[in-house]
């Protein structure tokens, strides 16, 4: 029996996605999005993913709103997390009981990182990636560095030009000379559909964050005075977002329920002991909601929807790819 299982997911931004920082930077837009502090590449924090996944899973399981959110009780003492050993929401995502303690939950979410970023070119849209993004896929081993850090590497014969623009940046095209394409192609075949894989290009880590940050979507909004029907003075603001077509990658690590007890009782789903596949199954119930209700802010302004590529309706079923770590099932009870 395994101690935990790791499930890999990729998803396509159906709309632009805005997960804001609550602040701005001088010379940029008013409302910026979250970025990795080291690479400066935009990301979606795991806390944002975990929170919205919990809410949508609670809807799917008929546990909304009590077992969703932070679980505070109402003024009359009712509501809040049920904290039961057979609740699929409280066991998977955890619960709080104040001084009575709580449970951390069986599912852990990584940050959502940019794997492939869509950029307009004179040859049509391409999806840009770099070794720094591809190394997030821990099933890609020993990815070599690019020989030329100022070139675009691709494997598709559909691009005839010797030069290609990525937005404003014009770079030379190389169709051979990098040994990493085979492993990249095999890894992406598991995660993404063919129509995207055939238009993937690779650039250096040095250029990747410049290309991404130069091609984010920026929108402008204004407050309308309901009396005059005109824009209010000083109410204009701008906000940035990951553009539609961005491919994001993340991992969900599911701990073995057999290691844990809630109120002295083992965790069960339905009439049987829960497994790591059951834990992941609860997480997956939220995925259809992500495609329709979205993640992040500006959800009522055409933003936020995310299509997760897994399940029987997917081309490649990334949710079927998982890693296992074995160990003693008697360790770590709570």
UniProtKB/TrEMBL annotation:
<dbReference type="Pfam" id="PF03787">
    <property type="entry name" value="RAMPs"/>
</dbReference>
<feature type="domain" description="CRISPR type III-associated protein">
    <location>
        <begin position="14"/>
        <end position="307"/>
    </location>
</feature>
<dbReference type="InterPro" id="IPR013410">
    <property type="entry name" value="CRISPR-assoc_RAMP_Cmr4"/>
</dbReference>
<feature type="region of interest" description="Disordered">
    <location>
        <begin position="309"/>
        <end position="334"/>
    </location>
</feature>
<dbReference type="GO" id="GO:0051607">
    <property type="term" value="P:defense response to virus"/>
</dbReference>
<dbReference type="InterPro" id="IPR005537">
    <property type="entry name" value="RAMP_III_fam"/>
</dbReference>
<protein>
    <submittedName>
        <fullName>Type III-B CRISPR module RAMP protein Cmr4</fullName>
    </submittedName>
</protein>
<keyword id="KW-0051">Antiviral defense</keyword>
